[in-house]
Amino acid sequence: MDPAAPSSAGPLQLGVPAVRPDSTRPGSTRPVARIAGLGVALPAGVESIEEIEARIERESGRLPVPRGTLAAISGIRSRRAVGPGEYASTLAANAARCALEDAGIGLQDIDLLIFASTSQDQIEPATAHNVAHELGWRDGSAFDVKNACNSFVEGIRVAEAMLATGAARRALVTTGETPTLAARYAVPDRRGFRHAFIGYTVGDVGGAVVLEPSDDDRGVFYRDSWSASQHWAVSTVPGGGSRHPRGDEHLYAGGNGGELRDIVRAFDPTLATRVFDATGTTPDDFALFIVHQVTAPFADEMIGRLGFPAARVERTIEAYGNVASGTMPLALACARDAGRVRRGDNVLFVGLGAGISVATMAIRL
């Protein structure tokens, strides 16, 4: 871990059924799987928000907005960025090594490896195979899970289900995020700047957890996700991979920020907070809240709408940027290293991903 880690429309209708009784709701049963190990890997490169503006100016010939605009809109101070020889798979593999060490086990104890990320090394094959090769792991099932910024939590859900059915004994769920490689710095005007804005606010990170069967009350005790897929085109990266980051316009991140903001503001917060009714808990029962952070103002707004106590929300946006699906492992590791969570504590994650998708997961550490 980084020693400098910092501590309009109506409700969006996603067709979500009413909360079901505990006996039938999959999120409220005794935990099937628990986190046995956690790891995070950060690339060495650090970029300040001022350096990002300077690069836009250099590659565009001028900065199409006043200096300080990026910091004012995003609230970001800095981010991590990969350099030569660093890929989505290498970040994931480095985080996996840390998670295995944290769990006190070796690769021979893993029979399921999942790579779950917005990023990838190439279109085919699955980046999970790159991760497996990097680790020297050859025994078991390896595949990718992808659902934008909710990829990592969806990967945990898939692994949990496989552990529950006996299809796997112990799983390694990894992510390697390299969204900085999809940023476009040569923009012709303010309109181009707005379309490429998301690429200036993202950061790179690797994360991993080891999941094992739970024999007590620790583990995932609630999980749910919903989608409004009619909004899939609002924010996209049409093609590419971290091993081939440059080419035509299809390799760059882009989107309509105003439309995305309106969609998110129309999100009905009860889709996430119904976890309390489903599990018989209240916000007071959770030591830590992790909310996906696109920008600092967005995080402030979402935390307020969800009604989470700000003092127990782990902030990563200011020092690391929007790390996409890496938000969950990074925030959890930052909180653990700072002593804000410990074994037995409850953690609630709420994620928002392009698509649009919403994911909620409650974990007892």
Mean pLDDT: 85
How many strand segments? 13
At the first level of CATH, the class is: Alpha Beta
In CATH terms, what is the fold-level topology?
Answer: Peroxisomal Thiolase, Chain A, domain 1
Supply the CATH architecture. 3-Layer(aba) Sandwich
State which percent range the strand residues make up.
15-25%
Count of the separate structural domains = 1
Distance from first to last alpha carbon? 18 Å
Radius of gyration: 19 Å
Note the run of SSEs as H and E. EEHHEHEHEHEHHEEEEHHHEHHHEE
Please count the helical segments: 13
**Which structural class matches the secondary elements?**
alpha/beta
* Name given to the CATH homologous superfamily: Thiolase/Chalcone synthase
Helix content: 25-40%
Quick one: overall form? globular
Biggest sheet layout: 5 strands, mixed
Strand order of the largest sheet: 1-7-6-4-5
Care to give the gist of this entry?
The chain is of the alpha/beta class and 365 residues long. The chain is built from 13 helices and 13 strands.
Provide a descriptive summary of the structure in words.
This protein is α/β, with parallel strands linked by helices. It has one domain (1-365): Peroxisomal Thiolase, Chain A, domain 1. The chain is built from 13 helices and 13 strands. It has a 5-stranded mixed beta sheet with strand order 1-7-6-4-5, with helices on both faces. Helix 3 crosses helix 4. The longest helix is centred in the first third of the chain and has 16 residues, at 88-103. It is globular and about 60 Å long. It starts with 32 loop residues before the first strand and ends with a strand.
